[in-house]
Amino acid sequence: MVDVLSQNEIDALLAALSSGEMDAEELKKEETQKKVRSYDFKRATRFSKDHLRSLTRIHENFARLLTTYFSTQLRTFVQISVVQVEQLPYDEFIRSIPKMTILNIFEADPLEGRMVLEVHPNVAYAMLDRLLGGTGASPTKINALTEIENIILERIFSRALETLQEAWKTVADVFPSLEALETNPQFMQIASANDTIALISLSTKIGDTTGMINLCIPHVVIEPIMPRLSVHHMFVTHKKTKTDEETEALQSRVNKAKLPIIAELGHSSISIREFLGLAVGDVISLDKSVDEGLHVKVGEKLKFIGSPGIVKGKVALQISEIVSEGVEEDDE
């Protein structure tokens, strides 16, 4: 980041140059010298800025899908948004989360390896309280999960992971599945201590309860699809050509599709009094002459003009005209 000088610092610098305390040539030499930047091998940079921007876009969509899902399930106000996307060592992530938390360990076929969706206890217990008929309040003291609470959380987060599939579909077809639910980070080992992970932090608000949901993705897991996280790849659409077999199968299904065909003799309007007074032998006058063709509709669209008749003792219709594609009959 470039430092911006204040007006006092600029005046002091100009005064030093005018008095000869500082030499302008020396300043130029310092600028031309190579700058050395320290590199920490324990915090290896595996994700470029382009990758992080792509991950941000993907998980902003994931946050919107989660908001919709949890709002429906909990039937209360839920707001989830991406706060930060960063890369850091796995060991640092483990040290940053509470000693007692909700860890949803999952896999996403065909990717190899495991990822984790960490949910702060305040958020998880607020969800439990809503699902069990409460107001969504979070307890002041966090205890170990009971067997029933464990099953409830497994079910709700297992379905929540399905939204991750929808969010990632622009990059790759992945199929997340919950493997286990843990509460102690010490019992979870999805990567080596120095492995780089992408950490997506989601700010979560359920009613009056707030907390964080963190998605931890080890670099080794998504390394095979890393090239697809480039902006160029995400915005280039690939045209998929259908094979002859797919075309024939589609044609066969279309040919078997059934459509309603309606031949209208005409229209007429009568009052309710007249309708109630109808008897056998009464005649209703239609708006069409016997010399005019009948309108034949396929679905809701006018497609043919025809003439009524009888063939082998059955009512029939002879097509006399084909109406141009897309023409609809005007309401009368």
From TrEMBL:
MF annotations from Gene Ontology: cytoskeletal motor activity
Keywords: Bacterial flagellum, Cell membrane, Cell projection, Chemotaxis, Cilium, Flagellar rotation, Flagellum, Membrane
Membrane topology label: Peripheral membrane protein
Cellular component GO terms, alphabetical: bacterial-type flagellum basal body; plasma membrane
A Pfam family per the record: FliMN_C
Coiled coil: none
Major location (coarse): other
Compartments, as annotated in UniProt: Bacterial flagellum basal body; Cell membrane
Keyword Membrane in annotation: yes
Source organism, top-level taxon: Bacteria
GO BP field: bacterial-type flagellum-dependent swarming motility; positive chemotaxis
NCBIfam families named in the record: fliM_switch
Name of the protein: Flagellar motor switch protein FliM
Species per Swiss-Prot/TrEMBL record: Paenibacillus psychroresistens
Taxonomic lineage of the native organism: Bacteria, Bacillati, Bacillota, Bacilli, Bacillales
